[in-house]
Amino acid sequence: MNNTNTNTAGNAAIDINPIPYLTWTWLKINKDSVGYDFSLAENNGKEIQVPEGVTVSSGKSVETELSEPQSAIGQQASKLISDSVKEGRIYTFESGKTADTKPLIIRVSTDSNSATHQIIHAKAGTTCKVIIVYEGGFHTESSLSGVITKVFAEADSNVHISKVQLCSGAVNQIDDTAIVCGERANVSLTQIELGGSHIDAGFHASLEGYQSQFKSDTAYICQGTQYIDMNQVVVHKGKKTVCDMKTHGTAKDDATKTYRGTIDLVKGCNGSKGNEIETTLLLSPKAVVKAAPIILCGEEDISAEHGSTIGKLSNEMLFYMNSRGIDQKTAEALLTRAKITAASATIPDESVQNEILEYLNGK
Hints:
By secondary structure, the protein is mainly beta. The protein has helices spanning about 75-85, 315-320, 330-345, 350-360, and strands at about 15, 30-35, 40, 45-50, 55-60, 90-95, 105-110, 115-120, 125-135, 145-155, 160-165, 170-180, 185-195, 200-205, 215-220, 225-235, 240-250, 255-265, 270-280, 290-295, 300-310.
């Protein structure tokens, strides 16, 4: 199995996380390329907590008027992972049933080469909280985890998905989140990336319905020789739709991080608003950081903003910390930790928040 951008013998390289519209090839940001062995065993996770009003069944498709959500990782990778799963898992939040205040919690082990295919189906008017924790890999030389998560948010549903990656440095992962929103649906995604060796994490949100909304909050630490590649896409189709994408993290040592963030405002999405911001705290001259924030406008009556900031600890911030007895190394650690804890505060389960803190303490 390959941990870098080169191919291993016997495994043909495939493209991962392709940018929706190509930019200059010499920038080397259009895609990632991997040569993994996709001989994966099915692993749809273990339900640790299933609240009332949630039906668990097997399958890889649901009956709904919403369109099929699109993949962010690319069709080839998506098919290879999906084909490795025979049954898959469907979690349906039923309309008209009493919703439990507790979230659905799923744990996915990454101790061996595995594929996961799960569907979150929030029926009309439901409130849905889901936490997916990726863990393990501490007792293996290397492993590949391929994950597909599809989210169908029907009209007037309120969905919060949290993905927490707490794997060892022996784990490579391809994590795809595909979302489609109906009228007035509100979906938020919290994504925390802390471990792993080579991580490809992407999401694609399609705002089909009138006044539908999507919000993302991504936080990461990229250190050692880690490689994190992110592809985040939001497509505005319905009128008066709103998206707000935030990605904050730290790159240090010999790590590499690539960020692609695309807001696509297609013709007909009158009155829509989009915003994306990406910031990276750069703590090493050897770390490689690339970013491509993109806004595509096919409609005139819209409002959109984007930005990307890459930089080290400012002299003003360092002086402020030093004046309070905090040296540079400690200041960098505090700011790195703050990015993670701010995102984890949105996760609706205290025990998972504590796991994140324990993992940070261990690192």
